[in-house]
């Protein structure tokens, strides 16, 4: 049914079709072209993502966009720290353990990545080398750091998660690729120092973004999604 939406420029079928297309197209890009994105396009992404819903309209996200020399300085510092075995400096508690179906999904995703890159199963050095590419931002010319206010707690972070999703969809609509990265948040102390964040700021994650290198094999695989039947319980009576 094509329900009428007041002041909508497009039919409901067209609107849901575009949204589904963007969601189905989007994937985590792990190889970018060096070409920089112009400032107007980046601001278009940010303006669109700013419409994200938040608890009490608190809009708890703050965003740092590092490009050019600033991005390169940051890349060198965080790569050095990560490759030296330092890290685990999260502002938010990471998952304690993956069990059951969550572990299965994580393994499936990881093995897809490694198989695509030709990394043999059990090659821990190969796994570690690929993981370090997080700190090269996978070659992206830009990286966004998402941080929030500490007193807002977990709900502020949840709102930031919604912002990250909308940032990625807006970028996808404008022909850009993205990858959300919890790995960067392992180095919150470094990030706080590098970008002069106050003690009440909490680093949620990063987003590397730019133009995807569609010719690179790492960008050829796609992860699966669970069915609605596996994730939703309908209660009618």
Describe the structure.
The chain has 237 residues and is an alpha+beta fold. It has a single domain, classed as 3-Layer(aba) Sandwich (NADH Oxidase), CATH 3.40.109.10. The protein contains 8 helices and 4 strands. It has a 4-stranded antiparallel β-sheet with strand order 1-2-4-3, with helices on both faces. Helix 2 crosses helix 6. The mean pLDDT is 96.
Describe the protein's topology:
Layout: H1 12-25, H2 39-49, E1 62-67, H3 68-83, H4 100-117, H5 124-132, E2 142-149, H6 153-173, E3 177-181, H7 188-194, E4 201-210, H8 228-231
Structure at a glance:
This protein is 42% helix and 12% strand.
Overview features:
NADH Oxidase, globular, four-stranded antiparallel β-sheet
Helix and strand run: HHEHHHEHEHEH
CATH topology assignment: NADH Oxidase
Radius of gyration: 19 Å
CATH class: Alpha Beta
């Amino acid at each position: 049914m094509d329900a009428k939406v007041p002041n909508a420029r497009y039919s409901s079928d067209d609107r849901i079709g575009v949204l589904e297309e963007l969601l189905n197209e989007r994937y985590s890009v792990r190889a970018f072209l060096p070409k920089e994105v112009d400032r107007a396009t980046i601001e278009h992404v940010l303006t669109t993502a700013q419409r994200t819903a938040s608890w009490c309209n608190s809009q708890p996200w703050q965003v740092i966009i590092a490009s050019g020399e600033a991005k390169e300085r940051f890349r060198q510092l965080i790569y050095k720290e990560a490759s030296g075995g330092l890290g685990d400096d999260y502002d938010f508690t990471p998952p304690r353990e993956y069990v059951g179906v969550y572990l299965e999904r994580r393994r499936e995703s990881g093995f897809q990545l490694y198989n695509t890159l030709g990394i043999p199963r059990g090659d821990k050095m190969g796994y570690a080398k690929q993981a370090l590419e997080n700190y090269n931002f996978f070659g992206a010319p830009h990286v966004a750091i998402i941080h929030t206010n500490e007193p807002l707690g977990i709900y502020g972070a949840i709102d930031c998660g919604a912002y990250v999703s909308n940032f990625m969809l807006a970028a996808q609509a404008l022909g850009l690729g993205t990858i959300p990265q919890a790995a960067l948040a392992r180095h919150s102390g470094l990030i706080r120092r590098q970008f002069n964040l106050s003690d009440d700021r909490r680093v949620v994650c990063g987003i590397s973004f730019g133009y995807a290198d569609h010719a690179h094999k790492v960008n050829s695989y796609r992860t699966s999604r669970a069915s609605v039947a596996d994730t939703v319980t309908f209660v009618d009576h």
